[in-house]
Structure formats: C-alpha cells, structure tokens
Amino acid sequence: MVRMEGVTRYYRVGGQTIGALDGVSFEIPKGQFTSIVGPSGSGKSTLLNMLGCLDRPNAGTYRLDGEDVSAFDDERASDFRNRRIGFVFQSFHLLPRLSVLENTLLPRRFLRGPDPGLEARALALLERMGLGRHLAHRPGQLSGGQMQRVAIARALLMQPALLLADEPTGNLDSRSAADVLALIAEVHASGQTVVLVTHDADVASRAQRQIGIRDGRIEFDAVR
Ligand code: ADP
Ligand code: MG
Fold first, then answer.
1. Which of 23, 69, 80, 221 has its CA 20 to 30 A from that of 6?
2. What does the pLDDT look like over 125-143, one tens digit per residue?
3. Given ligand 1 and candidates 7, 10, 11, 44, which is best to mutate, with the most ligand atoms within 8 Å of its CB?
C-alpha cells in the first residue's frame, strides 16, 4: 500500500539547510494500523505531509496504492490526495457555518462525476460515529469529541486508500480522546489502512505497529 524508499526532506532557511527527514524507508501493507511516534521536531509532520501527498521528497521515492506519487506534479498530487487520502487533524478543520451533514459531504466538491451513493454513505458514517441525531447541528454546538467524529466521517466519505490522523486526540479531554481512539480502532478493524502521528506513547501504543522517529530517522519499528 505504502512504500517509502530513502525519503529525504530538507528545508533551506536563509543560508542554512535544516534536515527534516534523512533517508526514511518503510512499507505499510494494506489494512495495517500504524502509528508514527517521536518527540517534537523529529520530522513527524513532514512525514505525514509526505504520506498525504502534500509535500514531495528532495530525494527518495514514495509509492502509494501502486503509484509513484513522489513524481506527480502539483495538480496530479492534489487530485490523488482528494480521491485517495482521508485526513483527520488535531484541530478538526470543520467549517463553522455548515451543518454536521454538510461538513461530512464537503469532499463532494472534488468529485468528477455523479456519485449516487454519497449521501447514503455520509448518513451511514455519521450513524456509525454516533452522530445520527446531530445531522443539522453546527460544529459550535458539538463537543470536541463529536467534532472529531464528524471529521473522521468526512475523512472516510471517499473510501480512501489511506486514513491519516495527525495528533487526532491532541485537543480532546481524556474521555473524548478514548472515544475517538476506539472509533479509529474500529475503522481499522473494518479493513481501513490507518496511519496515526503522535508524540504520545500511550496513543501510539493503540496501533498494531509503531514506527519511532527521531531527528528525521527511524529509531525503531515494532509490530505487536
Ligand atoms: P514534528 O512534527 O515531529 O514536530 P516537523 O516535521 O514539523 O517535526 O519538523 C522536523 C524538522 O524540520 C524540525 O527541525 C523543523 O524545525 C524543521 N521544519 C519543518 N518544517 C519546516 C519549514 N517549513 N521550514 C523550515 N524548517 C522546517
Ligand atoms: Mg508536528
């Protein structure tokens, strides 16, 4: 599903070069639930952006779902991202003036043709997320945990090859965090490939596999 080989990313700031990823290689098979864990500044966000086709390596290759996405131009990368990747962010990224259902249906604007099953899928996902009675609510009327569950429903709407979550529990109280992690585990159990990025070892330990990253390199890679 995912194959990274020698992925290197550096930033030039002023006259200096700042390394963010240094020759990172790993594979993730379809259906695996992997966490990427490391301290602040270790390169997690850079790696997640790479996985999500938001960024390209300076060296190395990244293949996803059989395609060499590291060679895509911006337009192909964004098209691929819209169709094949679901994102969940720490800060939810919901639109405040849209309802729960409308937020969930946002990926519809990237459709190229009709998708008659879309609305039924949105409703089923919201039901699964425990939000069946909140379809008309605005994000501001929801708890943090509920907002994140809307974001998960939205991320799954297009049936992505890869679900990426960047510190998905970072803004939640411990009980909502536990709910959201349980839902992500359930989504994985239904066959979804999931990559979760976190600095929190407890959160990381919920995954089948943990890839530890430090100073832009893989420090450990453990499957339980
Ligand atoms: P993490 O998400 O683990 O905190 P990042 O991937 O954000 O780590 O950052 C890895 C390294 O790359 C850090 O040294 C960071 O300062 C640097 N970095 C990240 N993004 C940029 C950028 N846009 N410009 C310059 N340096 C960056
Ligand atoms: Mg980060």
1. 80
2. 999 999 999 999 999 999 9
3. 11
Q: Which of 5, 32, 60 is nearest to 185 (CA)?
A: 32
**Domains defined along the chain, listed by start:** 29-54+85-223 (3.40.50.300)
Protein residue whose Cα sits closest to atom 17 of ligand 1: 20
Q: How confident is the model at residue 172 (pLDDT cuts 50, 70, 90)?
A: very high
d(CA 30, CA 41): 28
- Closest-lying ligand to the alpha carbon of 46? 1
Closest CA to 200 of 13, 44, 28, 1: 44
State which ligand 1 atom lies nearest to the alpha carbon of 49: 6
CA of 47 from ligand 1 middle (Å) equals 10
Among 215, 181, 220, residue whose Cα is nearest residue 47: 215
